[in-house]
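haha ok so turns out i had the wrong file open the whole time. this is the CORRECT one, sorry everyone. sequence first:
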Amino acid sequence: MASERKPPRTEPAGSQKHGQEPIKRGEGAVAAPATTGSAPAASRSSDADVAAFVAGLRARAPASGTAGVGRLIFAMDATMSRQPTWDMALALQSEMFTAVKAVGGLDVQLVYFRGAGECRASKWVSDPDQLARLMTTVDCRGGHTQIGKVLGHARGEGGARKINALVYVGDAMEENIDDLCAKAGELQLLGVPVFLFQEGRDARAETAYREIARLTNGAWCRFDAGAAAQLRELLTAVAVYAAGGRKALQALTHGRGSDGARRILAALPAPVSGAAKGQR
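then structure:
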């Protein structure tokens, strides 16, 4: 079981490889990979209506980020079962970062796991192009899921500074669901919603993903393998939500390419009215 694996051995201080920096906060976080290498070809822009909307968001303040900047953790399952659709997912995730760049006011951190206990987190970056370049260097390797490490890392980051959203893309769950739910509850106390996008129809994964979303006031959505536009819209909707909140997400439901925003809104819990808050 992945949650029982020992964390990878870290190098002593001063012995980190060139281009790497140890992550000091968060369970299971290890050295951030180097971001060297050539930039990939520019991704095609998303739907024109989405592009027009996110351009208008530049003047809006983010939902609740510290010092006026929203923060989003983007986590990926990079185990071998995702290899068939990995290239498609990378292209779509790059498009999401292109949309984030248009929104502005959003810092993003990439987290991924694969292999025998490998779980890595990048630095926080405001330049989506830098993160997109890093994503193209990641390949899939056999291993079990490490969702617990992802949630624990988000808990550590959120305890230090506000996190507006955690996005997770995966297709399986091989850990103790109660342990995951306990960590999800800690994220809920920090006000970190988790948005889980499931590839495929693994029933055990769906049960865990739905429960994590419910506990954190986030959302669960399934996307079909090969449905590129579907995942692109979902990821763009969450990025807009992290930068501008529910109001910005509602504005994204108008026009073409808005199905993802409507699905996310439908999956989110209903907002609590002011009167209801006063009764608590």
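The CA atoms of residues 237 and 261 lie 5 Å apart.
again sry for the mixup
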